[in-house]
Amino acid sequence: MNFKQKYVFLFPGLFVLIGILIFPIIFVVRLSLSGWNSYNGLNFIGLENYIRLFTDDPRFWESFFRLSFLSVTTVILQYVIGFALAHMVWKDIKFQRFFRVLFLIPMMTTPVIMTVIWRTFFHESLGPVNDILSNFGMSPKWLTDPVLAKVTVIIVEVWQWTPFMFLLLLAGLLSLPKEPFLAAAIDGASPVRKFLYVTFPLMAPISIGAIIIRLIEASKIMDTVYVLTSGGPGTSTETSSFYIFIKGLREFQMGYAASMSFTYLIIMIISLTVIVKVLTKLMLKD
Amino acid sequence: MGKLYKFLKYFFITFWAVFVVAPFLWALTTSFKDFNSVNGGATYIPWVDFEPKLEGWRVLIKSPANGGVDIIEPYFNSLFVTCTASLISIVLGTLSAYALSRFTFKAGFVKNNDITFFFISQRIMPPIVLSIPFFLFLGAISLLDSLIGLIVVYIVLLMPIAVWIMVDFFNKVPREIDETALIDGCNPYQAFFKVVLPNSIPGLIVAGMFCIIFGWIDFFFAFILTFTEVQLLPVKIVALNSSITPWWSLSASALVSVAPLIIVAFIVERYLSKGNLSGAIK
Q1: Please, which of A240, B78, B80, B138 could form a disulfide with B143 given CB 3.0 to 4.6 Å?
Q2: Is it the case that residue B54 has pLDDT exceeding 50?
Q3: What is the pTM of this model?
């Protein structure tokens, strides 16, 4: 179909989005080439910020690898648990609707607000987790030990976002065609074989989509970290976003923060493209 | 299906259900505690472990002058910003999605899929990248710390979601529907508003739910772009989380803020059961 009116449909949305974004994006690039701070305004300093970032700032790269570790770990956990849950409430189970609604609820809750609750939950002396563990003579420092703080962030992220994975995968399972399952039943395939040779391959495209969507969202981890640990102890839970936030809006080195933002965005786009390629190759063999 | 598998299945489901519910139950009991029962160590069962008090809930409706928390205004601010931004995103996003699903666009090497990708790719943008320019930009047009400024920013967050869901949905609506309408003498606007749109209610509801979820749960932009004039709910509640935290009012306000979206969980599940969502999400 082709009508002149097609532009009337497309353009309002497109132009509103471009109109809102064009200034910020150009400005980030311009700002990243400047020594802007709150005292002496915008002065052009060329690539100085980028040179500093690539040669003299291990903290940025550490925070980036920490972010990669945290987001990949949480997304893998979410995928495995989300798929297991979706498969379990897919059919023949008691209280099916109850479990489906229950498993969706965490993603409807505001991450920062639930994180405030989780903070009290993992409180070292007054929280219920350590109260129960103290019966076994343990009192782990959930928020102040460098390793355990990462574990806590992962637990909270998995609680918060597994439902999203669950939702996407359950919607996928419900939309699968019936014929392959009938064929498998006629052949007398065992449940395990049925899963490995029928369900999983059929779900591969949906799985890739869900994993990519979650990776995109997980790479923005920030709220949870801010409330739970503020990047601490030390820098042990500091992610890229949080480090840029500190540099830009705490220390007001806006030019440097902009160059980090831009570099970070480019790295994200490249790595996501690579991940999509690799996943597609791994999961869609034919 | 083996007995062992069935046992493991119910065990795992029960375990996960407990994990999901745990923080809510903890917040619920904590909201009825007072200073002494919080600081005496973890307690769980009201009347047995501690004497329940209504203090945590009472401060929510007190005015700030009397030591209240005053979450009513932030609550309505949040509601207003989320709903307005969602509505604008849905309207503009649906129109664009319809165009991208039905008509062919070509400008140089840019085709339909590239435009769709442009919309959706805005989700890849980390909030921090946008927050600094938005901070300066809204400051320059004096919309910093205002509801309108936040709505503008939230449209960027939500429109990609609306376009993403609606393009997939329209692709599933048979083209014959609009073609028949056009042959019957409708112009493209009438075909869209009178024929296609009424058939797209489920998609619109799902897209709307997602916009509301992602608008309501945003903290970062509200945190950076507002200060004192306008406060949204998440920012207000996190501000309570100071060094001497009143856990009881914190828990009560957290529960109040989380409550409305639980209704959304029921609506999403309903559309999931009917199989409508499977078309919308892919």
Answers
A1: B138
A2: yes
A3: 0.88
Contact call for residues B128 and A221 (beta carbons, < 8 A): no
> How close is the nearest chain A Cα to the Cα of B254, in Å?
6
Domains of chain A, earliest start first: 58-283 (1.10.3720.10)
- Whole-angstrom CA distances from A221 to A225, A272, B263 are 7, 16, 26
Site from B82, B168, B269 to mutate, A interface, most A CB atoms within 10 angstroms: B269
| Contact yes or no for A31 and B133 at CB 8 A | yes
Nearest to A99 among B17, B98, B192 (CB): B17
| Complex confidence, ipTM | 0.86
A181 touches chain B (CB under 8 A): no
Looking at residue B243, what DSSP letter applies? S
User: What pLDDT is recorded for position B175?
Assistant: 82
pLDDT of residue A159: 94
Map out the domains of chain B with their CATH numbers: 3-66 (no CATH), 72-280 (1.10.3720.10)
Q: Does residue A283 surpass a pLDDT of 90?
A: no
Q: Is the CB of residue A121 less than 8 Å from the CB of residue A129?
A: yes
Mean pLDDT is highest, among A15-29, A128-142, A143-157, B133-147, for: A143-157
